[in-house]
Amino acid sequence: MCRWLAYMGEPLRASTIVLDAKHSIVAQSLDSPLGAETVNGDGFGFGWYPSDATPTTEPAVFHSIEPAWNNQNLREITRAVESPLFFTHVRAASGPPIQQTNCHPFRYENWMFMHNGAIASWPELRRDLTVAIDPSLYPQVLGTTDSEVLFHLALTLGLRDDPIKAIGQAIRTVETVGHAHNVQFPWQGTVAVSDGATMWAFRYSTSGRTRSLFHSTDVPTLREMYPTVERLATFSDNAKVVVSEPLNDLPGVFVEVPESTAVTLDGDGYRHQPFLAA
């Protein structure tokens, strides 16, 4: 499938985790031990909010169909950008073609979205799900992926008012349409979405065997656990990272997000709640 990373906290030079971590997202693009595919070389994306963002600021996005490990522009941009909230995604295409409009993260107004997973039997379900998108939003669907349709379906269903409810309703719509087409397990995936101030992450699949997802332990606790690790001084006390798989091998730095869980990340920390649980 894919691998992704999301950061939230005080403005941080993006290369600190995009490039410099032991098992960085760029390293995972070439070798992801926990991924469904080891190599994620079918393009990538980097999206970020500026340090002076307001509640209506659009994030900037950079997409390329080159492998992340081989793109000098990604290195230049992430070394130059300091951001309080950014997304990075490396893609392993599950069917739709390799083109920039199919690279995550996707953007609408001040919202960003990315996904690791797939809608099963996408060619058969695509028409029914696409026509469920609000007509005013349909022109914003520029690519051919199931992920982008899910994002716009969630926007249709109220993402801007209640992200957890809207993502849940969008996935339930996928399951309803899938079951009508005799697809046993229509939805698989982890999702990240943000409005620039708060981030939400989701882990859920119809089969109950979802792709991996982790988030970091709070930084003050990590400093107590590893007082000699100088790298921790780079991060603010409120720094939070959500990842498809851990960025290092230190025990306790990353906590696995349980199945069927939604995680809210904001200034108060992490909050888990059941998501589409049976």
TrEMBL record:
Taxonomic superkingdom: Bacteria
GO MF term set: transferase activity
Keywords: Glutamine amidotransferase, Transferase
Domain Glutamine amidotransferase type-2: 2-278
PANTHER family the record matches: GLUTAMINE AMIDOTRANSFERASE DUG3-RELATED (PTHR43187:SF1)
The protein's name in its UniProt record: Class II glutamine amidotransferase
